[in-house]
Amino acid sequence: MKKFISILCSVVLACVFLLAGCGGSAAPPAGTPSLRLRSEKEQALKVGEGITLVWTTANTEEGVTFASSDKAVVTVDNYGSVEAVGTGEADVTITLVEDTSVSEKVHFTVTRNFFMQENGYKNGTIDFTNAETGGTVLIKDGQAQLLVERPGQAWFFKCHLKRTGCTNGDTWGRWGVGSFLVNAGTPIGEVMLWAGFQNRDENANTCVPYYGGWRTTGNAQETEVELTTSPIEMGGEADVTIIRLGTKHYVIFECGDEVVKTVVDIEKFAGKDTFPGVFGQNQVIEVSNYDASNEEDEVLAALDTFQLAEEVEVNGLDNRLIAGREYDLTASVYPAVTVNKNVTWGMETAKEGVTLTPAGHLTVGANVRGDITVRVTAQSGENVTKTRTFTVVAPPTSSSSLFETEMYIGESGNMTAEAAGATFTAGENYLPLKTSGETWYVSATVQGAEQKDGVRAGFLSAAAGYTKYFRYGIAGSGGTARHAEYGDGYGETFTLNYAANGDTAHGFMGANTIGLLKDGASYYLFANGKLIAKKEAAFAGETFLVLYAEGCGVTFSNVTVKTGTEAAAELEKHAFYVGGYVTKTGNVYKLAGEDFGEANNMNWPPDNDYMNGLKFAQAIKGDYTIEFTMSEIKPYGSSYDGKVLVYLKSERVTASIQFVIKGNSSFPTVALCTNLDDNSWDEYTLPAGVDLLNGETQVKIVKKAAGAELWLNGTQITAVTKSGATVDVDTLLRNNGYWNADTACTPGIGSFKCGVTITNPVITQS
Predict the structure, then answer these.
(1) Other Cβ atoms within 10 Å of 120 Cβ, number
(2) How many angstroms separate the CA atoms of 701 and 745, rounded?
């Protein structure tokens, strides 16, 4: 991006200029050290441009020094090379070393282009004629990207886009704005988030707003998300705003009276600068009324335009507070896409023994009883406030050894507590346990009374007053889905499979044993003897444990609680995260023969979070070995197109060894694909004597910094056959720089459109 304007410099030219007698001030007296500036004293540069100053000296051998009055505007090195790094004005002073009273100043005025016009920072045919005056910029042809010269991890860009035609006959093309990762290792157009419009008629009078993106692995396209259920009448033009703050991108589409908003979180951009900009696919686009900034205060001001608060609610499942305790109150601000969710707290009416800070820290004295009312006010939006009244009660004196029955929330007739369990018959029920701390583990057998949508049961890890919590439990469904739900407090709830769809033994009415391990802010989720996931909460510290049941009758039995080191030891029993579609019996894992659809493509993990596989529970550095027995391979459907995969580095899906099954039941084809190169998909015939479809196959893979070894049935595979030629397998199992001794790898085993049994999987470090 640096563009230097070279101008002849320095002492070498002194005699030429003196003989020519040109430019500068009058010559000093003979023998006096002197400095003569040959460059213009007023300079105008663009950000990213540079200039080398020209000067001459006489009667001195000591040279000169350089200094910038504002290094945020221009920098200068020891040779007089100046680079413009930010907008503004600054002076560069040249001073004689021998006599510091002798100096010259060059004044720099630095501005910046709005759009980047250098090769490598634009694509397509673009007319910048009016860009200098802020006029319309025209994208005329090609797969175009037009970048704004405001890179960073916090910026905003808004403009008016008008689609006036198309090229190459592409009447159904796409166009909009985006966030572009461009640096020395990433060319323009390879890695980007786009947010724009899909034409739904030849003139783009009706369009559907959407977002999507590319990733670095093979330039493959990510899943695209449409933001409206039907096209918008927009006449081919719209005002569009995109704001980046960290990894989140806030997008506003204004199409006449229609306004569509979305938030897209791109974790791949964490810690990486991107450029805002415009994209078009063979569309002719006029870009006007544009504005942008990467100044923090201006970005935050732009975020307020995305969504202000309209409503606020005080969080908490219980209207009771216990005397003598402290609470950190929280509130939920709506709509959910409101950016500034900060609130301020206060007491509606003062009460002796009760204090509440503006940050929400509530202290209730030991002798306080009766009602208190708090008030919360959203910091964004006008007059968005809410009050809530709590009743202060005495500390519980429950005699139960396991439960705080006096603090039960729900209809009293709907709950029965026993020595090691509880039964709920209907409604919403929350029963606290006498367990709290930063590290604990709980398990229970959960059995529902009715399989229907909207019912759920499990555990809460709750802060005092239920002001925030982490939820994990199983959910009922009127269909065949077997999924668990987890969520962080009053935010969004997420789901993951804990058993394959249609697994009748593990439906909501089955006897499911679930477990939850809390270790600070980390939560480990267990189901039916499997460690299925690790999730991070937005808060750590001490919490208390709660059984919850919502929607129908549920029984908890065999409730077991462990704390401290005994709780943490539960992780040592599980070497792998095991996907929900995998059936585990001892050390035998049966992976389902499922077609997971387009959303869960052939790069199975980590795209669907190992739903049908095993993922090692720890990241490993250095060399390691994977060993297991593979049997009962059953490709999905009548036309085979399945794989068993061993991922050597799960963060990069192509760093894998894959056993490929093609053809059909009458003519099956079995091959090996060592897909360690982003651009390779080469299948090779397995050696004679290796029969994957019948019997058992012993698999050993030794991953080394220089490559990997493959062993089948105790024999190292050193050659395979492709197109009649024998190929040295060592050329296939190279790592292509995907790992070295310091690379943290998280290996795994799984399948795509292929059932398989994996027995005794072991991963050992060298």
Answers:
(1) 12
(2) 14
> Which band of pLDDT confidence, cut at 50, 70 and 90, is reported for residue 25?
very low
- Could you give the count of Cα atoms lying within 13 Å of 377 in the half-sphere of its Cβ? 11
pLDDT score, position 15: 33
Q: What class is the 312-330+340-393 domain?
A: mainly beta
Mean pLDDT, residues 162-171 taken together: 94
- Answer yes or no: same fold for 405-572 and 583-765: yes
Residue 215 φ then ψ, to 5°: -125, 170
Q: What is the dihedral of CA 170, 172, 178, 183, to 10 degrees?
A: -30
Residue 736 near residue 548 (C-beta atoms within 8 A): no
Report the distance separating Cα 635 and Cα 656, nearest Å: 19
Q: Which residues contact 585 (CB under 8 A, 6 or more apart)?
A: none
Phi, psi of 56, rounded to the nearest 5 degrees: -135, 155
Strand blocks (E) in 499-608: 512-519, 522-527, 530-536, 543-550, 554-563, 576-578, 583-585, 588-591
Torsion sign (Cα): 156, 160, 166, 170: positive
pLDDT digits (tens, 9 = 90+) for 453-473: 889 999 999 999 999 999 999
The model's pLDDT over 129-154, given as tens digits with 9 standing for 90+, comes to 998 888 999 999 889 999 999 999 99
What pLDDT score does 14 carry?
Answer: 36
Closest residue by Cα to residue 531 from 567, 568, 486, 498: 498
| Confidence band of 653 (pLDDT split at 50, 70, 90) | low
% residues pLDDT > 90 (the chain): 64
118 vs 192: which has the higher pLDDT: 192
Nearest to 307 by CA among 252, 268, 346: 252
In angstroms, the CA 491 to CA 480 distance is 26
Distance from C-alpha of 611 to C-alpha of 46, rounded to nearest angstrom: 52
Query: pLDDT per residue over 75-132, tens digit each?
Result: 999 999 999 988 899 999 999 999 999 999 999 999 888 999 888 889 999 999 998 8
Residue 30, φ and ψ in degrees, nearest 5: -55, 135
What SS3 state is found at 298? Answer: helix
Q: Are strands 49-52 and 3-5 parallel, antiparallel or unpaired?
A: parallel
**Domain made up of 3-111: CATH architecture:** Sandwich (2.60)
Contacts of 609 (CB under 8 A, 6+ apart): 496, 533, 579
Length of the chain: 766
Is residue 751 pLDDT above 60, yes or no?
yes
Predicted confidence at residue 702, as pLDDT, reads 94
pLDDT tens track for 247-285: 999 999 999 899 999 999 887 788 999 999 999 999 999
The domain made up of 122-306 has a fold known as Jelly Rolls (2.60.120)
Tell me how far apart the alpha carbons of residues 320 and 570 are, in angstroms, rounded to a whole number: 34
Number of Cβ within 10 Å of residue 22's Cβ equals 9
In this structure, whether the domain defined by 583-765 belongs to CATH 3.40.640.10 is answered with no
- Find out whether 63 and 92 touch, Cβ atoms under 8 Å: no
How far apart (Å, rounded) are the C-alpha atoms in residues 53 and 104? 11
**Does 1 score more than 60 pLDDT?**
no
CATH tag, 405-572: 2.60.120.200
Q: Please tell me the predicted confidence (pLDDT) of residue 6.
A: 34
Do residues 159 and 278 touch, judged by C-beta distance below 8 A? yes
Report the C-alpha gap between 298 and 244 in whole angstroms: 12
Q: Where are the domains of the chain?
A: 3-111, 122-306, 312-330+340-393, 405-572, 583-765
Q: Which two tokens stand for residue 543?
A: 């919490």
Element (H, E) at 53: none
| 582 CB neighbour count, 10 Å cutoff | 26
As a dihedral over the C-alpha atoms of residue 652, residue 483, residue 511, residue 559, rounded to 10 degrees, the angle is: 80
